Amino acid sequence: MSLLDGKIALVLGVANQRSIAWGITKALAAEGARVILTYQNERLRENVQELARTLDAPTYECDVSVDEAIARLMQQVKDEHGALHVLVHSVAFAPKEALEGRYVDTGREAFRTALDVSCYSLVALAHSAEPLMAASGGGSILTMTYYGSEKVMPGYNVMGVAKAALEASVRYLAYELGPSGIRVNAISAGPLNTLAARGVSGFTEMRRFHAERAPLRRNIEVDEVAKTAAFLSSPSASGITGEVVYVDAGYHIMGL
Fold first, then answer.
1. Which of 39, 60, 146, 251 is catalytic?
2. Residue 156 catalytic?
3. Where does this protein act, in terms of pathway (predicted)?
């Protein structure tokens, strides 16, 4: 029997076949989950639907910066699938100018946008998903973070601040949703060569340094993050909540 047989899993954040969210989607499906994907807008719809067809997965539009869109998404999941056991939040965004230059020069609107999309969207999704997940017997909410939340990664700038807020939100949500049988965790992945990561100034150098310093002397693969996500989403991780789980070849343990 697979880890997620009979489970309904909603994944937000698939952009293309190199997305962490897409790797996670495939891992969830391989473990028996019925996956559901979202796309932000019409511009991204075709890419997501092309990938979704390979897994026979339904797709729905959802802009996580719009409360009404989140409420509509959860109603669609409830009406058409009747349950929700897994929610994967792999969504982050900051304006390009906020990932260049100095953090101290971050504009107010860029800061607001980064925190809204990268952090508050998890809170909004959890709020809307809680009744359906609780009625489904509980489940798992999972989000993606990065070590730049704890230590300065030059160029990561406002996104590091947003990820720090995201990790704090994981702990508060885990506490509040626990009585409903809902676990909330984060995966802190090492630098992966995704579309979003390439927007970070100095990303190539960041990956080189990571591979040199990590105990395993290499960078990680999306598949390693995806398998961890499948485990954390499954009943096998029933006692784990409020955690940040590192999948970074051990980089975070190093002092030098």
1. 146
2. yes
3. Lipid metabolism
